[in-house]
Design a protein that fits this description.
mainly beta, 12-stranded antiparallel beta barrel, 2 helices, about 10% helix, Tubby-like_C, LOR, LURP-one-related 5
Length: about 210
């Protein structure tokens, strides 16, 4: 396994910006769609309400519906530990990575460990609830960032259901989106002030995609 690569085929040679939109704003983790700078669908997570599937398990798919990653909450766990598996489901599979709160007391920071590469650890610092956090590798280098989106045409900060994920060259975009799924579950119920204007935005609109 290459450093920072979980799913082959989603490592970009240049810095890449994805526009991510929650497909429902009523329940944490209901669903996501992620678009590239051309407005093309790259990733999606489908859900149809809180009772449609095990809310402790979520599957990341590509644009065609191929299952890339499954993330599942490990119970019991004081640190809200989640584990990631390649493809769909976990039956007969070993987890590739784990995600957990760094501390029960400090709720914001999150630690990511790769089981096959013990020295490969990531720290997620900041507030996902406010869509303002950064993913660092073991060398404290930035590999991905999550930020609020600004609609340049209306000159407003969009609501937290639309945000940007910026991925550095060499880091796995599917892995980054898998971490977004887990962060949404860990921090989905955390309180956060929403000072942005919530606008119904088409994520394929270039005005909202190209502005971070």
């Amino acid at each position: 396994m290459k450093s920072g690569v979980i799913v082959e085929g989603f490592v970009y040679e240049e810095k890449t910006h994805l526009t991510v939109k929650k497909t429902s704003v009523f329940f944490a983790g209901d669903g996501f769609t992620a678009y590239d700078s051309k407005g093309e669908l790259v990733f999606r997570v489908d859900s149809y309400g809180p009772d449609s599937r095990d809310q402790g398990e979520h599957v990341l798919m590509d644009a065609s519906g191929r299952c890339l990653l499954t993330v599942r909450r490990k119970r019991p766990s004081l640190h809200q530990r989640w584990e990631g598996f390649i493809g769909e489901g976990i039956e007969g599979k070993k987890p590739l990575f784990s995600v957990r709160r760094s501390s029960i007391i400090r709720r914001s920071n999150v630690t990511v460990e790769l089981y096959n590469i013990p020295s490969e650890e990531y720290q997620i610092e900041g507030s996902f609830a406010n869509r303002n956090c950064t993913i660092f590798n073991a060398k404290k280098e930035v590999v991905a960032e999550i930020r609020r989106k600004v609609d340049s045409s209306a000159n407003v900060v969009l609501g937290k259901d639309v945000f940007s994920v910026s991925i550095q060259p060499g880091f796995d975009g599917a892995f980054a989106m898998g971490l977004v799924l887990v962060l949404d579950q860990i921090h989905g119920d955390d309180y956060a002030d929403d000072n942005g204007s919530k606008v119904d935005v088409d994520p394929t609109n270039q005005d909202s995609i190209f502005t971070s």
